[in-house]
Amino acid sequence: MSPALSVLSLLLLLLLLLLQTAMAVELQPGYYAETCPTAEAVVREVMKKALIWEPRSVASVMRFQFHDCFVNGCDGSLLLDDTPTMVGEKEALSNINSLRSFEVIDEAKDALERACPGVVSCADVVVMAARDAVALTGGPDWEVKLGRMDSLTASQEDSNDIMPSPRANASFLIDLFARYNLSIRDLVALSGSHSIGQARCFSIMFRLYNQSGTGKPDPAINPGFRDKLYELCPRGCDENVTGDLDSTPRTFDNQYFKDLVAGRGFLNSDQTLFTSPRTRAYVRKFSRDQDEFFRAFIEGMIKMGDLVSDRPGEIRRNCRVVNSRPVDVLLES
C-alpha cells in the first residue's frame, strides 16, 4: 500500500469513527422498524430454539445484560474474545466458569447478518435476548429500547472492579446499584432474575462451611434446605456441580422471593436481601404479589438498559471481534 493510500485509509477510519459517534441517537422502541423490521422476531426465534435445546441457556443469556451494562455501559463489550493486545471480560472473576451460552448470541447475530447485514448491534441483541428469556419462561414481556453501538474494546480489570461476588451483602449491593441510579427497589426486583437458572457449588461453599470465617454454616439458611445443600455440595466435591437458584428454575415467577422468605436462597447475595432490613420489605412484597414484581422488574431492566456507553462504537459483524479496519491493514503493511 502506498503512503498516500495509507494516510487516506487512516483518515477515512477516523471519519467513520467520528460519524458513528455523532450518529448515536436516543434509544427508542422500534429503532430497527425501517432498517431491519424483523430484528426482534429473528432474535426471539433463536431464543425459542435455545430454550428447547438447553433450557438453562436462556437463563444464562438473560444475565448477560447485567454483566454487560454495569461495565462501561451496554455496549456488547462482554462478548469480545481476548486478543494478543486485550484481555476481555469473559474470564473476569464474576464471569469465568459462570457465564455461558455465548453461542446463542452468536446464532442470533448470524441470523441478523443474513437478514440485515451490518445493521443490528450486538449490544442490542443482548438486550433483546434478555427480554425474550424472561418472556419465554413465563415472565412478563415488554418493549425494549434499541439503538446501541458496540464497543471497540473490553476490560477484564473494569469488570473485576465493578461486578459483585456471590458473597456480596445487601449494603454492598445497594451502594453498587446506587452508582448507576438504580434504587433499592430496582436492586431487589432485578435480583429476581435468579428466578430461573442454576449456580455452582463453588459459589456457596463458604456459606455452608465457613460463613464469615466462623467455620459454621450461614445461620440464615433453612435447616432442611441446608441439608439438601450439604448433599449437593459436600466438602471436597466438584465445585462445578450446579444447583437450582430457586425451586422453579425453569419458570420466571416470584417463587424466588418466596424461597428467600423461607430461608431457601441459594446464594449469599440472594438471601442477604431478606436478612437485611433495608431490602426485606421489597422481598416480602414481591413474594406476595407477582404482578408487582413483574412491574418492578420491567422498570429495572429498562433503566439498566439505559446505561449507554459514551465511547466510540460500531456495529460489529461478529460479536466476538471488532470489525477489521483500514488502520489494521496500515499497521500490518
Structure description:
The protein is mainly alpha-helical. The chain has helices at residues 3-22, 39-53, 55-69, 102-115, 122-136, 156-162, 170-178, 184-191, 205-209, 223-232, 255-261, 268-275, 280-288, 290-305, 326-332; strands at residues 150-151, 198-200, 242-244, 313-314. It has a two-stranded antiparallel ribbon with strand order 1-4. Strands 2-3 form a two-stranded antiparallel ribbon. The N and C termini lie close together (7 Å). 39% of the residues are buried. Residues 17-23 and 327-333 have low confidence and may be disordered.
* Class by alpha and beta content: mainly alpha
Globally, the shape reads: globular
Biggest sheet features:
2 strands, antiparallel
Low-confidence blocks of residues: 17-23, 327-333
The count of helical stretches stands at: 15
What is the straight-line distance between the termini? 7 Å
Number of strands: 4
Kindly provide the radius of gyration, computed on alpha-carbon positions and rounded to a whole number of angstroms.
Answer: 21 Å
Widest β-sheet, arrangement of strands: 1-4
Order of helices and strands: HHHHHEHHHEHHEHHHHEH
Helix content: 40-55%
What fraction strand?
under 5%
